[in-house]
Recover the amino acids of this structure.
């Protein structure tokens, strides 16, 4: 039997977290924090190429981590969820489009 599509599985997992007991939330939070830190590290090293390794791509992966984070902050408040939130914010910032780098300054000067 084939697995359901990626988005269906992720939505089901998020719904599960909304009713899961605290020990499940603790494990989920620790796992997602480790994964998010790994993604941040890979983004720093490899840039957006990282997202090609994820079934959800950049947009889907960011949606998923933000959604998990939202549930954990509400249902399992504390240092673990707060650290996950900080890491997901960092991941989001690294994934944001960057303006093009400025070209070399003009060699002609005006004035003086």
């Amino acid at each position: 039997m084939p697995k359901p599509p990626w988005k269906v599985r992720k939505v089901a997992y998020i719904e599960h977290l909304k009713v899961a007991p605290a020990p499940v939330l603790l494990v989920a939070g620790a796992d997602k924090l480790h994964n998010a830190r790994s993604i941040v590290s890979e983004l720093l090293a490899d840039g957006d190429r990282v997202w090609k390794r994820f079934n959800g791509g950049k947009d889907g992966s960011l949606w998923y981590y933000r959604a998990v984070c939202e549930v954990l902050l509400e249902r399992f408040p504390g240092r673990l969820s707060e650290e996950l939130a900080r890491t997901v914010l960092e991941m989001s910032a690294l994934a944001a489009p960057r303006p093009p780098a400025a070209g070399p300054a003009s060699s002609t000067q005006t004035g003086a």
